[in-house]
Every structure is written in structure tokens, then in C-alpha cells.
Amino acid sequence: MKRAILVVFSFAVAALAVHADTFSFDGVAWNYEVTNGVAVFGSLDGSVRAIPNASGEVVVPASILGVPVKVIGKAAFKDCRKLRAVTIPNGVTNICGEAFADCRRLESVVFPVDLEEIGPYAFAGCVALRSLDLPPGVAHIGNSAFACCQGLKAVRIPASVTNGFELAFYSCRGLLFAEIEEGVGSVSHGAFLGCDHLAGVDLPLSVTNIESSAFSDCTALKAFAFPESIMFIGSHAFSGCAELKSVVMPASIRRIGDYAFSDCPVLETLVLEPCAAAFGMGVFRNCSLLGSIAFPEGVHYIGKYAFSNCMNLESAVIPQSVTNIGFRAFHDCDNLATLKLPFRFIGATAPLAVAEGCKVIYYDGTETNDPPAAASREL
Predict the structure, then answer these.
(1) Sign of the dihedral through C-alpha 231, 235, 241, 244
(2) In whole angstroms, what is the distance from residue 335 CA to residue 315 CA?
(3) pTM of this prediction?
């Protein structure tokens, strides 16, 4: 509901702009516009800076000639390279896109308790920003809002964030820890993509989805604890996590997307609790240290190339519940010695690209190293 109100407000402000001027506060000239009784520092379209070349410490006034300030305009302080600190007063509900983008010396921001929305790229490129204390009422963090803030060490996503935070912390390469509060339902697309020093993540039970590329290329992650509520892991969610060694999947999981854990070269332990899950295409491709896999009963789909080039894989057990195994699921698994399959897959090992000499065991006790070619089919 808050997001809808903010969107309506933005359109209304754009349509009802009635005044634009300069206001002097503590000897500093501020550019602003007034729309429908609400003051905006800078402008909504980004054409006017609040204070061109702002520097040092800036305290934003709470009102202009008795008119309350509600919005920090688009690009209002963008590229103010000498700005070091800013205090935004209570009453401000919206920080527009690029408002403080590329303020490369900005070290601290005091956010208002009334803040509801942070626009896209609002603080992107603020490489000196050291900490982030978001107020508990923030409902939306825009695309790439804090991207490339290299100085951030820890972040906390408040429970009030309901409208996603896509790519919000993309390439925050100094980030060590992320906490997501109870109440947040998903980790958005690319939220922590490329945070290559991120070593700890605290996910609450309210999280059910981890979306695509959420933790891709987080090369310092060594283990990941999924809450018992997690149902969906998106494509490439953990791909390229070069230090990830172990994964434990809870019973709640329903789908693991394409290439979700691909290119995790030291992943060696995969524990799957009984679950009714589908495993997407290339889901563990190029996980060269993975030694064995025993799918629990309930898994029903294994995508093509799922374990392609898992060079250390020696054994795999496919349960009776699996109805479809994708083409070349075990392609280039040269050390695969034993594969246990439901009887319905007899003759299917050619399209699965099982290595020569692999012993195939069916649940009825049949063993073979050379399934009948006539029964072979692509799955």
C-alpha cells in the first residue's frame, strides 16, 4: 500500500508543480520547488541541484517558509565530491533516484524516521560510506540504491521492506555481513551480486524466495544456512561462489533454478532433506569437487546438464519419485562409477551421457554397464 501511495504521490507532484525558487538557510542558497503544498529540494526531474557543489556537512532544513520538506529530488546532490555528511530531517518520506550518487567522500547519512522510499541509484558510488542505519518504516529500496558503496561493512534490511531491493548492494566489495529482518519475504534479484567479501548472511524464517543472482560471485561465502521456510532458489543465485563448500537444503524447497550453484569449484557437501523439489538446468554444473549425491524421495525433476563436468562425482542415487532426467545430466562426469536409477529409465543412460564403465543399478536389482541401445531415448 505504501508503494502505491508513493507512486501516486510522485505523479501528483510532477503534475501539480506550482513554484520553483531559491531559499537561503544558514547563509546557504537552496534550490527547491513546491508542489501541492509540499517542498522538494532540487527537482523531481533532476534538472536542478539542491546545492550545486555542496561540501562538508549538510543539514537539510525541515521546512521552507513554513512549507514542510517531504522529498529530496532526483540527483539533488549528485556528484558533490566534497560532501562528507548529511542529515535528512524527520518528515522527509522520499529520497529520489540518484539523489546522492557519486558523492565519493560522503561518509555518513542520518536518515529520517519517516522515510518510506529510497530511489534507484540514490547512493550508488558513495565509496566512502561506512555504515547504514535504515529506519524501520522503509518500504522500498530502489534498483542499485547502494551499488558500489565499497566502504560498507554491514547492512540490515528492515522488516518493512516489502517491495524488493534489486541489485541494491551490487558490488559492495567491502561488505562483510548482511542481516535481513523477520518480515522480509524474499532476497531480490542481484541484491548482493559481486559482494566478494561477504562472509555471513542472516536470513529469517519469513524468507521463502532467493531470487536470481542474489548472491552470485560472493566469493567469500563458505557455507550457507537456508531457513526452513525457503521454497525457491532462483537461477544463478549462488553461481560463482568460489569458496562455497557445503549446502544443506531444507524440506521446504520446491525448486532450485537453472545454474543456481554452477561454478562453485570447491563445493563438496550437498545435503538434501526429503523434499518435493525440481532441480533446474546446469544447477551444479562445474562443481568439480562434489563427490556424491543422493536425492531424497520426493524430488521429481532433474534438468539437463544438472551435474555436467562434476569431475569428482563418484556416485549418484536417483529416487523413484523422479519422472524426468534432462539430457546430458551427467555429461563429463568422468569419475562417476555408480548410478542408481528407477527402472523406468532403463536404456536412458546414453542421453544422460554417463561415462563409459559406469555401473548402472536399477531398483529391481538389475545391474548393467551397457544398457540396450534400442531402449535409449532423450529425456
Answers:
(1) positive
(2) 9
(3) 0.88
Cα angle 314, 315, 320; round to 5: 160
Residue type at position 24: S
Domain boundaries, the chain: 1-129, 259-379
2, containing H or E segment: helix 2-15
- Say whether pLDDT at 154 is over 90: yes
For the chain, what percent of residues have pLDDT higher than 70? 89
Reduce the DSSP state of residue 183 to 3 states and report it: coil
CA 307 from chain centre, in angstroms, equals 24
Superfamily holding 1-129: Ribonuclease Inhibitor (3.80.10.10)
At residue 343, what are phi and psi to the nearest 5 degrees?
Answer: -60, -25
H helix or E strand, kind and range, residue 360? strand 359-362
pLDDT tens figures, 158-183: 999 987 799 999 999 999 999 999 99
Query: Beta 63-64 vs 67-72: how paired, if at all?
Result: antiparallel
